[in-house]
Automatic annotation (TrEMBL):
SMART domains: Lactamase_B
Domain Metallo-beta-lactamase: 27-227
Protein name: Glyoxylase-like metal-dependent hydrolase (Beta-lactamase superfamily II)
Pfam families: Lactamase_B
InterPro entries: Metallo-B-lactamas, NDM-1-like, RibonucZ/Hydroxyglut_hydro
Species lineage: Bacteria, Bacillati, Actinomycetota, Actinomycetes, Micromonosporales
Organism for this UniProt entry: Asanoa ferruginea
Hydrolase is among the record's keywords: yes
Keyword check for Ribonucleoprotein: no
GO molecular function term, any single one: hydrolase activity
Keywords (A to Z) from UniProt: Hydrolase
Length: 248
């Protein structure tokens, strides 16, 4: 179908891409960032519909995809990109193809999500086309071509992003900070919700607390998260402080 992805321009050479037909649990943001020399795309959606088919312009400048971590809702489209970067810790999962399903119960089981609350049955509310079979869904392997670590820099020409390794949600979770503007792309490390996901088998609350201590004092102009809407520094500091108090 056309219209699987929603594109929203956000200020200066930045486009937010979202998937309105995906359940809130897995509806992640892609951030398409244009530099003077090259583009990058931060995260790649669920991979139900090919980005190349729906948004061919995204691929005109052969962008690198930078994955904030290896979960299916961020890595689903990664295999479509020629250059793929993420933290080294997430590399084996990406190379194997992350655990994935569009069925709640099966996904919970594959990812080790505690099922104390009933899982949603199907995680998309519309089929991309009539003969699409959700049972055939999987995330394609996407071996990395660049391994990232804390303080690495990604230069797009006219803008540079600094990698912040902020483990907790997953061991190799990263955020990307454009230092001269204070724009932070935070992946699943932090978004505007007091229920952050720190209970997966690979999650670590002690690591998450360290990451939140850094975020609680970080100077930013805006946070563009992996889920939901963007928010400001005051909210960032409040969310991080809330987490530290809650897990104390
Ligand atoms: Zn995640």
């Amino acid at each position: 179908m056309s219209g699987w992805y929603r594109q929203t321009p956000v200020g200066d050479n930045l486009i937010r891409v979202s998937e309105p037909h995906v359940h809130a649990l897995l509806a992640a943001n892609l951030w398409w960032l244009r530099g003077t020399d090259r583009d990058i795309v931060i995260d790649s959606g669920l991979g139900v519909v090919a980005l190349r088919d729906e948004i061919p312009a995204m691929f005109e400048r052969d962008p690198m995809v930078v994955l904030t971590h290896s979960h299916l809702d961020h890595a689903g489209g990664a295999h479509e990109f020629r250059e793929r970067a993420a933290h080294a810790t997430e590399a084996p999962t990406l190379a194997a193809g992350p655990p994935a399903s569009l069925y709640g119960a099966e996904l919970y089981q594959k990812m080790g999500i505690p099922d104390d609350e009933p899982a949603p049955e199907l995680l998309i509310d519309e089929l991309p086309h009539n003969d699409y079979d959700p049972r055939g869904y999987r995330v394609e392997p996407a071996p990395l071509t660049r391994l990232l670590d804390d303080q690495d820099r990604i230069d797009l020409g006219g803008r540079t992003l600094t990698v912040l390794h902020l483990p907790g949600h997953s061991p190799g979770s990263i955020a990307l900070l454009e230092e001269h503007t204070g724009v932070l792309f935070s992946g699943d490390v932090i978004y505007d919700d007091d229920e952050l996901i720190d209970f997966l088998p690979d999650s670590s609350i002690p690591s998450y607390r360290q990451s939140m201590k850094l975020l609680a004092g970080l100077a930013v102009s805006v946070v563009h998260p992996g889920h939901d809407h963007s928010f400001d520094q005051a909210r960032l500091h409040q969310l991080a402080t809330n987490y530290l108090e809650r897990t104390n």
